[in-house]
Amino acid sequence: SSTMSLSEAEVQSARGAWEKIYGDAEDNGTAVLVRMFTEHPDTKSYFTHFKGMDSAEEMKQSDQIRGHGKKVFSTINDMVQHLDNSEAFLGIVTPLGKKHATQLKIDPKNFRIICDIILQLMEEKFGGDCKASFEKVTNEICTHLNNIYKEEGW
């Protein structure tokens, strides 16, 4: 009954890849958000308290950005722990998708942006194999989030 398209071997290798970047969750989570806000400035509009921040240095120091970066990484970590249990995985992804679609009204393309930046960072820090191992996971996450958005009428 699994909704997941990952084999057991793929799950294991994705977890190994994720552990590397999650080892420094706050700094890496912050780096991902700072890169997103810098390269895609329109994404800042969703975060009212980041609006005045223009320099990457300023963003890196922000407690709110650091806190949110850590939160993003913690949530992905929960998903990664449940890649072999679709019910538990969807139990994390579904409320997240609903909240972002209905309350926060965040364009779903931003999930793809953030996933791509995570993959870039993995490749820069740990090489192409690490990135390749995690790519299927980001596709799963984005596919499920997009489905939830469709159900919510996006």
From TrEMBL:
SUPFAM superfamilies noted in UniProt: Globin-like (SSF46458)
Keyword annotations: Heme, Iron, Metal-binding, Oxygen transport, Transport
Top-level lineage group: Eukaryota
Ranges of residues in domain Globin: 5-150
EC number: 1.15.1.1
Enzyme type, top EC level: oxidoreductase
Catalyzed reaction equations: 2 superoxide + 2 H(+) = H2O2 + O2; Fe(II)-heme b-[protein] + nitric oxide + O2 = Fe(III)-heme b-[protein] + nitrate; Fe(III)-heme b-[protein] + nitric oxide + H2O = Fe(II)-heme b-[protein] + nitrite + 2 H(+); H2O2 + AH2 = A + 2 H2O
GO molecular function: heme binding; iron ion binding; oxygen binding; oxygen carrier activity; superoxide dismutase activity
Pfam family for this entry, one: Globin
Keyword RNA-binding: no
The protein's role, per its UniProt record: Involved in oxygen transport from the lung to the various peripheral tissues.
UniProt similarity note: Belongs to the globin family.
Protein name: superoxide dismutase
Gene name as annotated: Cygb1
